Every structure is written in structure tokens, then in C-alpha cells.
User: Fold this.
Amino acid sequence: MEFIDLKSQYAALKAAIDGRIQCVLDHGQFIMGPEVRELEERLESYTGARHCITVSSGTEALLISLMALGVKAGDEVITSPFTFVATAEVIALLGATPVFVDVEPDTCNIDPSRIEAAITSRTRAIMPVSLYGQPADMDEINAIAARYGNLPVIEDAAQSFGASYKGRKSCNLSTVGCTSFFPSKPLGCYGDGGAIFTSDDALARAMREIRVHGQERRYYHTRVGVGGRMDTLQCAVVLAKLDRFDWEVERRATLGLRYGELLGGRVATTALRSDRTSVFAQYTVLVDERDEVQKRLAAAGVPTAVHYPVPLHKQPAFVDRCRIQGGLANADVLAQRVMSLPMSADLDETQQVAIVEALIAAVGNRSR
Ligand SMILES: Cc1ncc(COP(=O)(O)O)c(C=O)c1O
Assistant:
């Protein structure tokens, strides 16, 4: 059993993926070839955002967004301490300070009720993360941002592309949305890739320039930028994967709900709010004595993973480079207890039952 089954997905989409890749090999426009804009247009209509700018990774998407918003040394950006490191890393790279606010204990997403207390005259943006595939409470966060001079809100939607919130698509829920096409993500390519979404024309123009070394036209540089383009070949892979993406999103939702039903309250799970859907980038449960439970599951042939074992305020790279607002007790406890189970659209029901049985046995046997 695989933690994420990319081989079955490739087998199902082989003709489309091979065909798309061959097409790029034939036309030879490996950088900014026609598939780049084709993918951006497809994703604009999928999300409803006016602009999609593909970039070389989810990390680069976040970095370019902050650069376009003018975030600089001395500024503060409010975010979650319970996320992949890239979220805070890009803030620190620009010389700004990540300000960590605690998360909700059940969804693991930033707790909007704690954000307001973190806002200072140095706050330049709020960066919620839609963790494990479920959007953060974006309307609440947007409302707070609006009250403080329309602070920009960047959704780190690296794990939630395809999910929705109150009927709207993740990535199109705030000023900017950023996603990742890392291979294991719900919509992944075969290397690194990512995308930025916004309906703000001026920001989109700045982001397109920053993506290519800040150039307005070839060799005319109006600002400092990065080399952040997404390869044509990777865009071609994502285009092919869009052929069954709607089915995959449905299937992931079904598997996620089914995990909950099969577990039947015998193991604590993370919560799904009724006004949103999740693409279950991870299906995450909460267990005590996690190392032991993971060992027992591995022995039963069930791979698991921990996202994330150390919250960012406790990472050596950030201890002296962050500001902590209030306590971060929920993030601390979650980091000790979270454990993700195998999840991919090609997981079958028999495997799922076997995973759940092994988990219940592992948790039950824990103290023996
Ligand atoms: C929440 C979050 N933010 C940012 C990223 C960075 O994306 P990438 O790996 O494409 O740079 C990831 C990827 O793991 C992520 O999960």
C-alpha cells in the first residue's frame, strides 16, 4: 500500500499525459510555451479568479505574492504556526516577521477570533493556510482585514486546490490565493510547480513581471524579481490531469467522509465545517503515543505521515525571527498528536477498511 498512489493515477491517465508531453517535445517551446497560458486560462475559469499566474512552486507563489504586495524588512505578516515551513519562510526571506496566531483545535486552521489582537501598525498582510485541504474561515478573516484598512489576505491554498468555501473555490476567496502542484498535492505535476490567483489587475501585472526577473518586456527590468516560471512540460502534465480532476475531488471527499464513518468516533479525527468541502490533501487523525501507533501501523503494512511534528515557533530557524501572539497551545498539542492516513483518489474501499481496522487495533493495543 502506498501513502499516496501516484502510479495508479498515471496508469489511468497515461494516454492523455503521454500525449501532452509528446506535444511539448514536438513543438519545443519548453519555457513559456502555449500550454502555460492554456493552463492559466483553464484554472481561471475553474476558480473564477480573473488572473492565474503559474509559477515554479508553491513556495515561489507565496514569495512572489508578498513581493508584489510590497512586503519588506520590518513589516509583519500574520500567519499560522501549524503549517509547512514555506508559509513563514517566505515572510522571513523578505526580512519581515511572521506573527504566529494559534489554530483551531479541530480544523487545525488559524483561529480568526485571535487575529485582531495580533494586528499592529507594522502588519502588512494576513496569510491563512487551508490545511489538509479544507479552506480556513476566509470570510471571517477578510472581514477583519477590511476593518484594518483593507489589509491584503493571502490564502496559502497549497493543499486545498479544488476545495470550496460557501460555494466559492479555494484560491479565489481573498486578495490572493497560492497553490502548489508538488506531485503529492491534490492537483500535482511531475516536478515542482505552483500558481497564484487574484482578481486585482495591478497585482497580477506585478506578479507576472516579478515571475520573470521583474521585466516589463524582454531585458527591461522595472523591479527586482525572480526566475519563477513554471516549465511548459509541467503545465502540460497538469492539463492532462485536469481530465479527471472533478472525479478525483469527488472521490477524495467520499473517501474522507467514509474514513470518518468507518472510524465511528473510536479515534479522534480533524473536523470538517459544514459550510466548506475538503480535498483531503491529508486525512488526519489525532492519536496519543503517536510513535508507537505509527510503528504498529507500519508493521501492519499501513504507511502514515506526520504533518507537522514541530510547530514553526519551535523550529530553530524561526525562534528568534518570529513574534508569538497569545499562546500557541493548540498548535503545540496538535504537533504531538496529528497523524495522516493513506489518501488518494485511487485508494479502494477494501484498502480503506484494512487501514481503519489496523488503526483501531494499533490505538487499542497502544498501552500493552
Ligand atoms: C501549506 C503549504 N504551503 C506551501 C507549500 C510549498 O509548496 P511547494 O512545495 O510547491 O513549494 C506547501 C507544500 O508542501 C504546503 O503544504
